[in-house]
Amino acid sequence: MTKKNIYFDFDGTLIDCRTRLYNLFIELVPESNFTFDEYWEIKRKRIDQKKLLIGTFNYSEEEVKKFKIKWLNKVEEVERLKSDTPFQFSKIILKDLHEKYNLFVVTNRQSKQLVIEQIKSYCWSSFFQKILVTEQLQTKEELIKSNCQVSSEDYFIGDTGEDILTGKSLGIKTIAVASGFLNNEILKEYEPDIILNGIEELYENNIL
Questions:
Q1: Which pLDDT score is estimated for 201?
Q2: Model-level pTM greater than 0.90?
C-alpha cells in the first residue's frame, strides 16, 4: 500500500524560533520596550512587521523597507539559528510517523543548506523524504507540486494561514497548530480541518 504524505512547516510547527525572531526585532528596533510575551501576543494576532513599525513606532515607508532588508540579511545567520529549539515531542512524533507516512519539510526559509544543517543537528535527517525550501523564489504550493505526488489523503501541518491555504489549494487535509505565529482564533478564520495547540496533540487526540 502506498504511503500517504505529510508536509510539515518548520518554524513554529516543529521548532520554536520565537527567541531568534524576538531578539532580532529588539536589535533592529532598539526603541522598543516590548517584553518577549508582549511581542508575541501582538504577532499572534496577525499584526505584521509593517503594521507594527508604522502603527507603534511611526516608521516611514522608507524606514520599513530598510528594516526588511536588514531583517532578511540577519534572520538566518548561523549564530542566530542556534537559539532555535525543537518542540518537546517533535522528534518522538517524527520518528514514529516516518514509518507510516512519507514526511516532508516545506519552509519559506532563504537558505536550503542551513535548513538541512539545522535538521541534521537535531538528528532528524533520516525522517524526511525531502527538505523543500522556497528560498524566496517560489510558493510552498509550487514547490510541493514540482517535487511530490500529491494525494487528497495527504496532510499539510503548519502554523500560519499560508500553510492552511496551501493545503487547501493542493486539495489535501489541513492541520493547524497554534504553537507558532498565530493564535487559535486567527487560525479558525482559515478553516483548517483540525486545529491543535501543538503537534503533540496529534497523539493526544488520536489523529493520524
A1: 94
A2: yes
